[in-house]
Amino acid sequence: MIRIENLVKTFGAKRAVDGISFSVERGEVLGFLGPNGAGKSTTMRMVTGFYPPTSGRVSVGGHDVAEAPLEAKRLIGYLPENAPSYPDMTVGAFLGFAAAMRGLRREARAKAVARVVQRCSLGSVLHQPIETLSKGYRHRTCLAQALIHDPEVLVLDEPTDGLDPNQKHEARNLIRELGRTKAVIFSTHILEEVDAACTRAIIIDRGRIVANGTPQELKRMSEVAGAVTLQAHGADPGRIEQRLATLGRVDKVDGAFRVYPKDRGASAVLTRDVVELAAREGWQLDALHTEEGQLDEVFRRITLPDTVRR
Amino acid sequence: MRSAWSHVWTIARRELGGYFSSPVAYVFLVIFLLLTGFFTFTAGNFFERGEASLAAFFGWHPWLYLVLVPAIGMRLWSEERRAGTMELLLTLPITPWQAILGKFLASWLFLALALALTFPVVVTVNVLGDPDNGAIVAGYLGSLLLAGAYLAVTCMTSAMTRNQVVAFILAVVACLFLILAGFSPVTDLLVRWASPALVDTVAAFSVITHFDGFQKGVIDTRNLCFFLSVMGFALFATGVIIRGLRAG
User: Fold this and answer.
1) Inter-chain residue contact A76 with B10, CB threshold 8 Å
2) Does domain A2-220 have CATH number 3.40.50.300?
3) Do the bridges between strand A183-188 and strand A153-157 make them parallel or antiparallel, or are there none, so unpaired?
């Protein structure tokens, strides 16, 4: 549904987006990650036709955004950063305006407004001016606006920013559900959301894609991926550490031992070896688990400038 | 084509709704009517003139609009930029021109309403004497075009900044230039050291010169064209500024 080829956007001398290519199909939820200022919003603004690209192409549903902007924009629902809306309008009037701008006529408009109000739980504030609403409701109002024409493509710029934990949870569920039938791109810098809602994630840094894969694939890039963490007693800790060191490099983390595999691919073998070793040595295991890898560590490692990298 | 105009109208309706959902519209209407009344009857010596005409009424409009029209138009784009709703508006399936035109027409309609509410002066002058009502209609048309020209200039300055106050000041300065270019104290001053051709060229940019014709009851195509071109040019410039903002 969304194809991006060699997209570049410069502001003066700064290359905000520097040659990004990817595509998103129906049924996919693409998480767009990156530190602040990495070019996430700029990319989304080019996808939605707000910024014309300096070079490169964006097409949505087969329509080139630069050449056939109206056809492309019709397919897109967009939640801009900070969820802007007209503060003096009521929620109902604002959604009615959005529906009218999407070409929905009377009954269709009323039906569409009723549908998104129900979906985004806005029934209780329908007649309130938006400026009187809490941030969570304002955010949902803007999200409702993006869904009003049941678009095939959704572009959501930080859809969970400023929401409380319950609202975040709801928003993620909604995104996941919408992703079954639509092509969704959403940006975030909350890494747990990638696990919770995405089928695929892209990490960008200084305008370039630095990682692209499923959340599992990204986690496997972590240093701790495949390591075995265990808490054991029944022997002197120094002795335990010494014995574990025969299997791989050992670290102490919060009173537990973490053994790193000698070979990245052999983590299943390592787990079995650790269990066998413990049985042989007669240690009692209080806890043992195999690390999946930590997304935040991967994120930090690939987005921090080299000088800060450890 | 039909949907293009329906988009323009939807945007205009939203803007108009914005005026009337806050006290701004009512405060503006009251101030506008009080000031036109004051200038016409007190400062304009309406009764002492002993004429059955609205010269005392229309003569003040270029000055009155100088402050009031920028006040109405200053928020049109600057507020969209400040609140970030411009991103929402321009990613809807519309062309920027539809948005520019819709916003302009909403404010122009509102100014037309304010102008229409001055009908008591027309009634008064008709009760007291026997005026040339054709000249009055021409005067109203001229006044509406004058307001439209100022408004289009305000749209342009409003697109330049996120700050409504800055937009207001820029608009007042630009409109003041449009007045002063043909204001007799200024042209008299210019005549002393500039060639008459130059003075005429500068004066040709003045709204006063072109508005005078309407006041006298003459609907001259050249004057009509002048106001329409100012509007066209300023709205075109608005479009260029908005495109510049997006191109980065």
Assistant:
1) no
2) yes
3) parallel
